[in-house]
Amino acid sequence: MAGQGGSSAGGRGVVISDNWPGYSLDLFTYPQHYYGDLEYVLIPHGIIVDRTERLAKDIMQDIGDNDIVVLCVLKGGYKFCADLVEHIKNLSRNSERFISMKVDFVRLKSYHNDQSMQDMQIIGGDDLSKLTGKDIVGTGRTMKVLLNNIEKYKPKMIKVASLLVKRTSRPDGYRPDYYGFEIPDLFVVGYALDYNEHFRDLNHICVINDHGKAKYRV
Ligand code: HPA
Ligand code: MG
């Protein structure tokens, strides 16, 4: 795993190469009900949290004195969003300026088993028109659909932060303004990411094995 800090927005994330073998599950603790369902740990929880702290610092540098509305994309983004908000809060408490933050939530759903479905649904979330004139940091698996919806309301600035970016072969791959890790094109679970609603209660980001896929298939 090769990392590079970069300066701020535009800096690269930690790049996890295709031949990265991951960490043995035996080196960490994880819920007993997932024993036998996972292949390996791709990113341990501690590294996720440390990298998120740096993203928080980069974001704070870029937003200046503006107040922000954090739009968390549920459900998979809730851990990243919570940790990111916590780091921004802590960093701003220890600096000159205290950034005012509002947090809102939307839900996007497009996955069934480990396959992406064609239609994207935006479920719930408050009135997006409230975002007008505010700066937004979207977190989670942010989709173009959502951005198109938000842009209608002409916010002063929109920034997208995502913990993970997958190296897919698709040419339309969206690049967020901030991201934690660039990972191989693998289906991963944990840290709020699910496989049919399972594995959200796993702290580390892991690769699911065939047994796990079969066990929780719907
Ligand atoms: N895991 C869980 N949910 C996802 C993934 C993934 O790898 N990719 C897109 N949604
Ligand atoms: Mg999901």
UniProtKB/TrEMBL annotation:
GO biological process, one term: purine ribonucleoside salvage
Pathway: Purine metabolism; IMP biosynthesis via salvage pathway; IMP from hypoxanthine: step 1/1
Subcellular location per the Swiss-Prot or TrEMBL entry: Cytoplasm
SUPFAM superfamilies: PRTase-like
Pfam family, one: Pribosyltran
Annotated InterPro entries: HGPRT, Hxn_phspho_trans, PRTase-like, PRTase_dom
Catalytic reaction annotation: IMP + diphosphate = hypoxanthine + 5-phospho-alpha-D-ribose 1-diphosphate
Keywords (A to Z) from UniProt: Cytoplasm, Glycosyltransferase, Magnesium, Metal-binding, Nucleotide-binding, Purine salvage, Transferase
MF-aspect GO terms: hypoxanthine phosphoribosyltransferase activity; metal ion binding; nucleotide binding
A cellular component term, taken from the record's GO annotations: cytosol
Entry cofactors: Mg(2+)
Domain Phosphoribosyltransferase: 47-195
Record-listed E.C. numbers: 2.4.2.8
NCBIfam families for this protein: HGPRTase
PANTHER family xref list: HYPOXANTHINE-GUANINE PHOSPHORIBOSYLTRANSFERASE, PHOSPHORIBOSYLTRANSFERASE DOMAIN-CONTAINING PROTEIN 1
Similarity field: Belongs to the purine/pyrimidine phosphoribosyltransferase family.
Protein name: Hypoxanthine phosphoribosyltransferase
Naturally occurring in which organism (per UniProt): Junco hyemalis
